[in-house]
Amino acid sequence: MLFTQHLLALAALAVSTLAIDCPGSDTAGTPCTSGVFVLSARGTDESSNAPFQNGPNYTDQQGQQDVATALVNKAGGYCRSLPYAASPGLLYFVSAPTRRFNDIASINYGIKQGQSIIKEYVNRCKSTVNPRVILLGYSQGGQVMTSVLIGGQGYPTLEDYKQYITGGAFFASPCFVAKYPIDGGNSTTSGLFARGPISYNYFSTTYSNRLRNYCQAGDEFCAAGGFADANIAIHRNSVNTYKQEAINFLLPLV
Length: 254
Ligand SMILES: *[C@@H]1O[C@H](CO)[C@@H](O)[C@H](O)[C@H]1NC(C)=O
Ligand SMILES: *[C@@H]1O[C@H](CO)[C@@H](O)[C@H](O)[C@H]1NC(C)=O
Prior knowledge:
Layout: H1 2-16, H2 25-28, E1 36-41, H3 64-75, E2 77-81, H4 95-99, H5 105-125, E3 133-138, H6 140-150, E4 165-171, E5 183-184, H7 197-207, E6 211-214, H8 229-236, H9 238-250
Parallel strand pairs: 1-2, 1-3, 3-4, 4-6, 5-6
One 2-acetamido-2-deoxy-beta-D-glucopyranose (NAG) binds at residues 186, 216-217, 241.
């Protein structure tokens, strides 16, 4: 009996799984859907696209499509990439530790884009559908998405829109702070650009029932684990490590 159920479940999974992409929200638009609108932010662009621009690879979601696919296959809807530069090098790596959250162009633009895309979608669609927004972000993308929700770099929180944020999963975000209910993974140390306790506490109390901020112990950025190869490998692999946990956490919410 159990075995039969298992086979049926596998068969159902096989027919219903359709991998989805996350094209850019600027080019593909954000149609109103009664399913989920997944907005996903990539991590730092290692191919060094010019700063201040949306590089041609901003749709490269480093595995987050798998989470989007699971949610969209259940709930309907679609996924879009957050158009932002995800700049490496000077703008992020070097300036960030000294300038912290004050003037990081790539992240700044990402926050602006994220907040305006969510507000525009909700305001345009709430009279026809129940807007259900899912946010995903890896590395710099997780840092951007955290600030989209809780503010930073001169931007306010998204407090007035929080009821439309149905869920989210962030991976290896440098602004991770350890030991809060919103955290996933096993890091007991905070990130290189950890948020302050007041804003992180707001993040955790407001969103921990529907969002997980994943960080593995030893991660180069989110756990400030150091810059050895092992730390870098943990960081690079973070979406792979936690995407199934994220899917299991988010599926009941959609
Ligand atoms: C985009 O990403 C792909 C695969 O990650 C890489 O091969 C390619 O060189 C990148 N293109 C640019 C213009 O950076
Ligand atoms: C943390 O979790 C990862 C992934 O499950 C595991 O491989 C690693 O051994 C754990 N590390 C510690 C210090 O518990």
